[in-house]
């Protein structure tokens, strides 16, 4: 297999935001692209969606370049200009604003389903062959190509398979790509809240001894997306509580930063784990997005890493894909993922537990973050996805 920039036939498995953006980008380069999604085509309604993501500048730039960002409904986008992070039982706090690094905002909060819907419609418009309600059950090599068998027994022969089928990736499992993983033994509880005070475009996060709680500002100035990461026993207790008792606990944790909070959605929980595939490229099969890596949501970087995979992969296909360029892509993206995993681990360990010495250290850490300019700049750059 040598380098070629001929028109490739590519199957993307998984229609989450990462698979869809890869499919759109590859199609716009002139390749013939299939996208196979086992669920239905993504839809959204008038009510704000439960799952939201803070997207960094590089992710937005990609979506802009694909012609997708411009089509997102403005009222469902929450650009955020400030960040406040504090620790509930020490004296530490960091606050920073976009103006400090001369940018208009630090990123934007999007509702996952809204973005996926717009990506899906755009994929359709640019000529991606979308197969919803279909599942790949088998893949085989046939000389220089791959043959996929779908649950409907349809077969397709393609040059490359890109698996973006999420953290449980059935494709990665079938290919037996080894996985390094550990459970954080936490769940992330998500919900949408109405706030008494306007959020003012500030993303807020408090570290409790059981894990961080984040309030992410949505398009409506009084709506925030909640991400409450809690150790497993605490998460189970929180989920078992009736809405009023749950909100009582949340209110108590919020330090009244947004005034009175009202639950305006159901609650859902996601188990949190760290994992990465030890190999991302197996001949003509690649894994990207959560299929390749999953991290703790505390810095909102999971999808941003996936968009980074797509940006670099599009360059590989643009310049002519080869085993060598794919290996270089794999090295580069693994390094980015491992760096982020290590940073999340540091944050998580640094902020969990309530031993007094730990409290003092993390209090000093946050104070240092507030006063030492280079450290604070580093935190801002991470938020910007640089
Ligand atoms: C609580 C929480 C908060 C988060 N907050 C943020 C944040 O603020 N910022 C951020 O950047 N990231 C965040 N993340 C991470 C982010 O949600 C994920 O990284 C991102 O959604 C991964 O997208 P994906 O397209 O790779 O996978 P997924 O969204 O999991 O999509 C995979 C798709 O593949 C399909 N599929 C699976 N198997 C098959 C098959 N066999 N055949 C066909 N289709 C298949 C599935 O139906 C699904 O549609 C958060 C995560 C959690 C849990």
UniProtKB/TrEMBL annotation:
Keywords: FAD, Flavoprotein, Monooxygenase, Oxidoreductase. GO terms for molecular function: 2-polyprenylphenol 6-hydroxylase activity; FAD binding. It comes from the Bacteria. Residues 8-335 form the FAD-binding domain. The keyword Oxidoreductase applies. Signal peptide: none annotated. Belongs to the UbiH/COQ6 family. NCBIfam families: Ubi-OHases. One of its GO terms (biological process) is ubiquinone biosynthetic process. This is 2-octaprenylphenol hydroxylase. Its cofactor is FAD. Pathway: Cofactor biosynthesis; ubiquinone biosynthesis. The keyword Flavoprotein applies. Gene3D superfamilies: FAD/NAD(P)-binding domain (3.50.50.60). It holds the Pfam family FAD_binding_3.
């Amino acid at each position: 297999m040598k380098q070629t920039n001929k028109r490739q036939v590519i199957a993307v498995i998984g229609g989450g935001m990462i698979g869809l953006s890869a499919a759109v980008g590859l199609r716009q380069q002139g390749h013939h692209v299939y996208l196979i999604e086992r669920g239905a085509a993504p839809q959204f309604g008038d009510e704000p969606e439960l799952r939201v993501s803070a997207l960094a500048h590089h992710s937005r730039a990609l979506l802009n370049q694909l012609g997708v960002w411009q089509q997102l409904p403005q009222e469902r986008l929450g650009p955020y200009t400030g960040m406040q992070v504090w620790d509930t039982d020490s004296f530490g706090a960091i606050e920073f604003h976009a103006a400090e690094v001369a940018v208009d905002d630090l990123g934007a909060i999007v509702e996952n389903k809204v973005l996926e819907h717009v990506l899906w419609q755009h994929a359709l418009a640019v000529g991606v062959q979308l197969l919803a309600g279909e599942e790949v059950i088998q893949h085989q090599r046939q000389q220089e190509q791959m043959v996929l068998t779908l649950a409907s027994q349809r077969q397709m022969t393609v040059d490359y398979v890109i698996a973006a089928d999420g953290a449980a990736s059935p494709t990665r499992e079938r290919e037996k790509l080894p996985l390094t993983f550990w459970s954080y033994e936490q769940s992330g509880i998500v919900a949408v809240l109405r706030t008494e005070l306007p959020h003012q475009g500030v993303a807020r996060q408090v570290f409790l001894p059981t894990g961080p709680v984040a309030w992410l500002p949505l398009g409506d100035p009084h709506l925030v997306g909640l991400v409450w990461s809690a150790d497993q026993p605490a998460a189970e207790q929180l989920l078992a509580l009736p809405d009023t008792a749950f909100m009582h606990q949340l209110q108590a944790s919020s330090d009244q930063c947004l005034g009175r909070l009202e639950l305006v959605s159901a609650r859902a929980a996601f188990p949190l784990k760290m994992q990465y595939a030890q190999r991302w490229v197996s001949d003509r099969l690649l894994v990207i997005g959560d299929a390749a890596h999953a991290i703790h949501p505390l810095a909102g970087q999971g999808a941003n890493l996936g968009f980074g995979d797509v940006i670099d992969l599009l360059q590989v296909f643009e310049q002519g894909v080869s085993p060598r360029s794919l290996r270089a892509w794999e090295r580069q993206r693994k390094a980015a993922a491992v760096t982020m995993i290590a940073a999340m681990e540091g944050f998580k360990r640094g902020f969990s537990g309530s031993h007094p010495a730990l409290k003092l250290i993390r209090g000093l850490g946050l104070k240092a973050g507030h006063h030492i300019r280079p450290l604070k700049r580093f935190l801002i750059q991470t938020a910007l996805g640089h």
